[in-house]
Amino acid sequence: MSRVGKYPVPVPSGVTVQIAGDEFIAKGKNGESRMPLSLDLVDTTIEGDKVWVKPKAEAKQARMMWGTTRALINNLVKGVSEGFTVNLEINGVGYRAAVEGKVLKLALGYSHDINYPIPDDIAMKCDKPTAISITGRDKQRVGQIAAEIRSYRGPEPYKGKGIKYETETILRKEGKKK
Q: Cellular component per GO (predicted)?
């Protein structure tokens, strides 16, 4: 069983945190983020530059929310101070991406280009035509957008063509034999 909840969340300099009612608020250089707290299951307190989360009871649901709440608060604090980045790579002849204004244009071997509108809270850039960098303060949102873009042309196992995460390893298959 994970014991991630027993560790405090360190608050870096330049980030202010507060608990307003049943909401946790973090402000930093990347903006402001809010998260609802489950006050009936966990106790959240701010002591100096640390945020502590404690379960209110020994019930299974309270213990589950203990670690989950601590992890969500940690992601919120890290998001407003540093932000999150997911890098995608495009492999394939003629496959490319470009950011034009608030639209990501993808040429992925279809008869038409795919235009993906970039949300306001997300920043995208293409340093190379075969690399996409997605940045934002919400870890879940950045990951979801990266997964949506990857789903347009996922990597295939024979030639490795498609969009993949930078850290992803594609298991390659051997082609048919004569």
A: cytosolic large ribosomal subunit
